[in-house]
Amino acid sequence: MSLVMPLTYFSTGFIIAFMFPRLPIILVTRGRGFNTAFPEHPEPVPLSPKLTQRVLHMRMIYWMGFVVATIPLMFGLASIKWGNTAFGFGLWISSGWYILSRLQTFAGGQDPPWTLGIAQRLQVVMDESKGDSKCCDNPLPEWGVMAVSCTTCSKVLDTMPRPDLGRKRLDGFFVGATRLLLSDGYPIISNDVDDTIKLDDSEE
User: Which of 125, 142, 146, 143 is nearest to 134 (CA)?
Assistant: First the structure.
């Protein structure tokens, strides 16, 4: 018996289940109406309550993918039992792997690209720029690719690299979506445990 058709069905199911839970991150905030408060990609983003809100929205959408992944998982199990076994196995393997990769966060794995801690750090920088510890007379903090810095005096206010912020990408939908699928929204650089900077793939 030829393996071509089973492999084709398996690959199709695998790709569908790989794409499906990631669609919210790729699609939900990319419209023009969602980004009127932000400069175009990949320009630095001024710190504001709307930016903090966007980080929290991206965090919510990220975990929404966990719930969305259960749909192809259930369809995969149903297909294994009552339909095309190879197709169902592809759905089940891919969506199951996605769910496990999300769960590893709670077992000491890598944090998500967007966390409550990131939103809090942005808020702290905004508060400090308005208080007695501000970096200059007219602080204008903005979030660049590599860090949060002041536009006025160029002082680095937080060495926090910028993840994907849901803006419409300059390099187009398909190229941008491909990079998002590969990077999962993580920043172009990341700080390791020794506070050194290493390159990484990213939307930004």
Answer: 125
What is the DSSP secondary structure assignment for residue 84, as one 8-state letter? -
Q: Rounded to a whole number, what is the distance in angstroms from the first to the last CA of the chain?
A: 47
The residues spanned by each domain of the chain are: 4-199
What's the predicted TM-score (pTM) here? 0.84
Residue matched to tokens 């998500």: 112
Task: Using DSSP, state whether 109 is helix, strand or coil.
Answer: coil
Which of these, 186, 179, 200, lies nearest to 58 by C-alpha position?
Answer: 186
Which residues lie closer than 8 Å to 203 by C-beta, 6 or more apart? 163, 164, 169, 176, 179, 180, 183, 185
pLDDT digits (tens, 9 = 90+) for 43-86: 999 999 999 999 999 999 999 988 899 999 999 999 999 989 99
